Amino acid sequence: MWLDIHFEKPFKESLSLYDLQARSLLNIGKSKIAVALLEQVVKIKETTLAEDHPSRLASQHVLADAYKGNGQVKKAVSLLEQVIKIQEITLAEDHPDRLASQYTFANVYEANDRLLSQHVLACVYEANGHVKEAVTLLEQVVKIRETTLAKDHPDRLTSQQALANTYKANGQVKKAVTLLEQVVKIEETTLAEDHPNRLASQHALDYVYKANGQIKEAIALLEQVIKIRETTLTEDHPDRLVSQHALANAYEANGQVKEAVALLEQVVKIKRFKFQKGHPSRVVSEDWLSYLSEQT
Predict the structure, then answer these.
(1) Selection from 147, 152, 159 nearest residue 120 by Cα
(2) Domain of life, per the record (predicted)?
């Protein structure tokens, strides 16, 4: 049972209880609920207490901690900068509260930068053929982000998608399918159907479906992606052309050669207008169309 704050009756004498409750929520990993509660507490204190009041600063500090735990790093940084700015004016350099705020501020930056660096390093590993090292590193990043960020947090989803792609490159196709299905499922409930991140994840899932022999699932997903891209992107947009080419490949793998040829004819027509003769993208589509035309 948790307490509720009603803004119509903001009893100042009860705020210490709410502070305590929020800290308890943080301790058991319920950062999202703690953030919601602390935002109410801080809002009240910011309207009733001076900006350098110890209680107000303490609650702001805890809220910044909660933001950090919830993956809202920018909000954590912004709030801590305010707190530290005030404490630098009102508190001695060695005051415990001032030092605590500076320490938390450093941790927020460090935690975010470390995970970002690890994510980038994993991508470098994969690009250089060190796929196993990339898998190990991304598994660490994902493990941390799954315990500190909400399921629909963009950073968490980005790392999960990167790990899934690396699983595929490492031959762990079933793991890639499972992880990408999770990502797509979440994004389909939180992002608009034409959101670039959602479409990119669906496209990535298409590739692992094909690698796993799930051709029918790949076709269904790509047809959905293309339907959206045909209404939101120009006919010569690279993303739209990539999706159409990929769908033609899936059609061929499913024995639908006529459908593959018809779609590739559209793609090649556009690429011949868009790209010079000999352009790699144009050549790939032309060669594939030539091959499939011989099969019909």
Answers:
(1) 159
(2) Eukaryota
Amino acid at 236: D
CA atoms within 13 A on the CB side of 130: 11
Domains 1-112 and 227-296 share a fold: yes
- In terms of C-beta density within 10 A (0-12 exposed, 13-18 middle, 19 or more buried), how is residue 100 classed? middle
pTM over 0.70, yes/no:
no
Work out the angle between the directed axes of helices 173-190 and 196-211 (0-180°, nearest 10). 150
pLDDT tens digit string along 58-87? 888 788 878 877 777 678 777 777 777 776
Predicted pLDDT at 12: 59
Q: Provide long-range contacts, Cβ within 8 A and 24+ apart, for 72-75.
A: 72/35, 73/108, 73/111, 73/112
Q: What is the CATH number of domain 1-112?
A: 1.25.40.10
Give the whole-angstrom CA distance, residue 163 versus residue 174: 12
The span from the CA of 283 to the CA of 275, in Å, is 10
211 close to 168: Cβ distance less than 8 angstroms: yes
> Is the distance from CB of 126 to CB of 134 less than 8 angstroms?
yes
> Rounded to the nearest 10 degrees, what angle do helices 54-69 and 15-27 cross at?
30
Does 56 score more than 70 pLDDT?
Answer: yes
Distance (Å, rounded) from C-alpha 16 to C-alpha 3? 12
Q: Kindly report, residue by residue over 99-110, the tens digit of the pLDDT.
A: 555 545 544 544
